[in-house]
Amino acid sequence: MANDFERDSFGRKVVRAPGLADDLLQQLAPLLAESGIDLTTGSHTIEEVNAALAAATERHNLILTTPVGKSLTATFETIAIAVDQISYGDIDAFIEEASSLHPDEEPTPAQVIGVCLGRLDDWYTNPETSEKLAEIDLSKWQAEDRQTVAAILELARQGRAFASYRELLLEHGGGERVLLTSLVAVAQSLFAWCEHDGVELDDLVDELFPE
User: Fold this and answer.
1) Which whole number is the average pLDDT over 39-44?
2) pLDDT (tens digit, 9 = 90+) per residue, 105-130?
3) Phi-psi category of residue 129: left, alpha or beta, with phi > 0 → left and psi -120 to 50 → alpha
4) What residues contact residue 125 under an 8 Å CB cut-off, 6+ apart?
5) Which of 104-108, 147-151, 162-166 has maximum average pLDDT?
């Protein structure tokens, strides 16, 4: 199957692959069935199908982005490594490590994104922690990257970053770019937290992302 691609702001190929919508519908089929929707029959109204698709997509995203047990531990480790790499300015290693994540191997990109967005929601909606995050320095990142990170942080302040997973993918260049910028959002938030409280980054990461 031929794929078209363009370059994202990190200089990587963004592939446009025909047929992905059909693959997603196959994945959603069991969840649609729970709502009594069978797309092969054609016996449902557009309103019924749209409502069921919205609910199934939300559940599908929740399953994809919520690791538990060993998967959660592995996700925490991945986030901790990324934060460490960004703190040392080793951006090439950060991009290479994060980009090596695969949808069929845990932690998956979706799991890492989900945990990042969920943690950001928690921090930015909690009055005790949000005051530590009033000044986030994004100056070293490119303009397009700053825009995406800023969008994630604005959603987090509303407690909507995790719930906006699908919209972020659609509006900000797809999974790999949202993965990278979600990790940047977490890292820069932790840097501000450390600056505010005068604590060591390693200690804060160990507390928030225990292995």
Assistant:
1) 63
2) 889 888 999 999 999 999 999 999 99
3) alpha
4) 156, 157, 158, 159
5) 147-151
Residue 5 pLDDT greater than 50, yes or no: no
Cβ count near 193 (within 10 Å): 18
Element (H, E) at 13: strand 13-16
Q: What pLDDT does 30 receive?
A: 56
Q: Which of 107, 96, 83, 66 is nearest to 184 (CA)?
A: 83
Distances (CA, A) of 172 to 90, 97, 149, 162, 191: 24, 20, 10, 15, 24
Domain boundaries, the chain: 16-65, 70-208
- Burial string for 130-159 (b: 16+ CB within 10 Å, else e) reads eebbeeeebeebeeebbebbebbbebbbee
